[in-house]
Design a protein that fits this description.
By secondary structure, the protein is of the alpha/beta class. About 40% of the residues lie in helices and about 15% in strands.
Length: about 325
Amino acid sequence: MQDTIRIAVCDDWEQCAATAADWSGLQQQAEVHFFSSSFASSDEIIQALSSFDAVCLMRERTPFPREIISQLPRLKRLIFSGERNAAVDIAFAKSMGIEVTGTRSGPNKASTAEHTWALVLAATRRIVPAMTGTVRGNWRGNAEEDGYTLPDTLEGDRMGIIGLGEIGSRVARIAQAFGMDVVAWSQNLTAERAAALGVRRVEKNELIATSKIISLHLVLSDRTRQVIGPTEFSLMRRDAILVNTSRAGLIDQHGLIDALNLGRPAHAALDVFDQEPLPVGHPLLNQPNLTLTPHLGFVSTPVMETFYQQMVADLSEWIEKITLQQTSAAAAN
């Protein structure tokens, strides 16, 4: 090959890409660069990636609209983790002759369901303030000995699940194991589908008004965007906990801050945000009745290994194909 192929592995925020797969064979055929920080702007993305032939993306981290794609003259291969990526203009990329594919997802649905419950339990058992106080030498409460809100119990209370798909149904089974009454709603959910999972379908407003835990598990679309907004906040119980490990756009995030200040819901546990990473000084970071994690729902060792190992395999095949084409062209001449 006349020019060395250059591969950019973006969005490696966990700094695990290099160890989650064996890149050594690929590195003998191409230059591989790992980017572990987010890009601050579209101009920074273009400047950083303009000299690369292939780009690997973590799903819905770095945006890749046509305005960016059109400014990457060498780009011929784009691969992202998972089976779909709303942050990439796939149709435009393909129209530019760029080969675009995703990867298998691994056990990401199990990982997200488990993380949902990590947030539920952290919020109800007050894990974060309890640990923070203990580490700081305050066995109960804070340094001012103000005490802290008592942990809660879930057994016998109600969990409302908005979206009873593969992840929502996993969350429902765990809620049942805790002895909770589980209800669910989505636009497409039927009573028969819910009953088959031991769950009762109710209308959205009833779910919102009666559930201690409200957990979101919908695909983001025009129909589901801000499915939780001012009306829904006003209906929530005074002790309700709102959990979102799905998509930030399902909640009116700005309205959520006001709602938390008004006490409906009492608490929110969030893994997804309108802006990621959350910048220093973001209003959500100053809310005392929030449990936050940095979009970890799908992040686990087996999931990341699935993503990166397939990226390596697919890129190796792509380079082999290019090599064969160049060899054939040289022989023909």
